[in-house]
Amino acid sequence: MDIKQKLIALAIAIVLVLFITIGIDTFYKAPENKCNDIYNKPRPVMQNCELMQEPNKTQCYLQQQVQFEEQSIESQKCYEEFQPIENLYKRNVFIILVIIGVLTIIIGFLLKEMQALSLGLMIGGLINIIVGIIRYWTNMNEYLRFIIIGILLIILIWISYKKLKYYL
């Protein structure tokens, strides 16, 4: 395989990953996190406590502390309600990317006659799987991480043994 074919394969891989990522963002929208609105909503104007005399100074600081605590409680509640929704979305995107990645690797493996296309699809599929793993990594338990990386390693070894030795 010459340098032009390798560059075409790389271009196919990059565009495939972009296409899949943009497709997911277009047709499967991420849930909207409204928790940030808590910090952006108008707050009552507080006086500069530093300029006040006691006991008003202490009262001013106590009012600010109460407002801060209320905002923190509201923010924490919002986060706790949003987290399961976001985790479900991340898991679904992970599954979509892994399925598409595996399918493109298989299609690439089956295309024996078109080396550049075959290699590009396999690299793009691998990158999609890696992107899916990275996006869902923090939500996976350690056993799932170990299993996924082990399966990915086995796939890579198998592909390199069966297919890539003919390309490089």
What does this structure look like?
- This protein is mainly α.
- The chain is built from five helices and no strands.
- It has helices spanning 3-27, 36-40, 56-110, 115-136, 142-162.
- Helix 3 packs antiparallel against helix 4 (115-136).
- The radius of gyration is 26 Å and the shape is elongated.
> What is the number of beta strands?
0
- Write the element-wise H/E pattern from the N-terminal end onward: HHHHH
Class of secondary structure makeup: mainly alpha
Distance between the termini: 7 Å
* Low-pLDDT runs: none
Work out the radius of gyration: 26 Å
Q: What gross morphology would you assign?
A: elongated
Helix content: over 70%
- Largest sheet composition: none
Average pLDDT: 86
- Tally of helical runs: 5
What's a concise summary of this model?
With 168 residues, the protein is mainly alpha-helical. Helix content is 76%, strand content 0%. The protein has helices at 3-27, 36-40, 56-110, 115-136, 142-162.
Question: In terms of topology, how is this protein built?
Answer:
Elements lengths: L2 H25 L8 H5 L15 H55 L4 H22 L5 H21 L6
Helix pairs in contact: 1-4, 3-4
Search tags:
168 residues; mainly alpha; 5 helices; elongated
